[in-house]
Specification:
Length: 283
């Protein structure tokens, strides 16, 4: 039986990928951030999952304002890195897991989540940067990845409750897949940041740290957090953090925190990383 064994939440700041691609990770500005990623990389390598479900948002690469799916799942064999205006990132192609992806699509739709099924798309920094953060530089990513894109770009995005409930439905669906797989769910985006307007560069560390703490101690508060609170406290792009709730919903109620890393700034944003495991975890 397949099972979700753990979750990882992380920011997906494009400049983090650029720092890796340009060999700047040891420079004084970037070193404290990347030093904090090393325990997460060791953890993931030791866990050696069979599949990653990557919850992220597209940034106008696979989708545009012409078509805005609230939830979209990639079911292809392969997903190539997107050209975001300066060429594709020099990272490996992402290999999917069509068997589990189609199982998820069918199960989630029958469970009344209206998933958009995507047979072909490129994946941008929202997906490739979290892989780089968790896996380091690789010739091939260590396991298949199922892209699950969430709209947090065009209002209205899904509520935190809807995202959490989607995670619950993913957990249930994975358990009904008939192959023995260890699955890790990534929730990506955030933390507090705003990229435009008078509040460009906003960072609210108090909000971020309370959010990190409540992923384990009080997820119900986050489930009930309204959109306007994210915008007010975490900036316009802080709404990306609702995607972390998909990851949290996919885990057991008693999941425990294994590791946390928070750093300011990376580019003009705050960055966070958290690892949660279901208990007991058999590797």
């Amino acid at each position: 039986m397949a099972r979700v064994v753990a979750g990882l939440a992380t920011s997906h700041v494009p400049a983090i990928g650029a720092a890796m691609d340009l060999g700047k990770t040891k420079e004084s500005y970037w070193k404290p951030l990347f030093d904090g990623y090393e325990p997460a990389r060791k953890w993931l390598a030791d866990l050696n999952p069979d599949v990653i479900i990557m919850v992220y948002n597209d940034h106008g690469s696979a989708f545009s304002l012409e078509v805005i799916p609230t939830f979209a799942i990639g079911v292809a064999e392969k997903f190539l890195p997107a050209d975001e205006g300066w060429g594709p990132r020099p990272v490996p192609a992402v290999h999917g897991h069509p068997g589990l992806a189609w199982h998820l699509a069918e199960s989630l739709i029958l469970n009344e989540f209206d998933m958009t099924i995507v047979n072909e798309m490129t994946v941008d920094h929202g997906l490739t940067v979290p892989l780089s953060i968790a896996c380091g530089e690789q010739k091939n990513w260590p396991c298949p990845v199922i892209p699950l894109s969430v709209n947090v770009v065009q209002y209205p995005p899904p509520t935190g409750k809807r995202c959490f409930d989607l995670g619950r439905a993913i957990r249930k669906s994975v358990k009904t897949y008939d192959k023995d797989l260890k699955v890790v769910v990534f929730g990506t985006g955030g933390m507090s940041h705003q990229l435009h307007g008078e509040r460009a560069g906003l960072i609210n560390s108090e909000f971020d740290k309370n959010f990190l703490a409540d992923l384990t101690r009080n997820p119900q508060r986050l489930i009930e957090l309204p959109h306007i609170e994210y915008v007010r406290e975490a900036g316009a792009e802080g709404i990306e953090m609702v995607m972390w709730l998909v990851m949290r919903g996919a885990l057991d109620e008693n999941a425990v925190e294994i590791y946390q890393h928070y750093h300011v700034p990376a580019s003009n944003t705050a960055t966070g990383l958290m690892i949660l495991e279901n208990q007991p975890l058999t590797v």
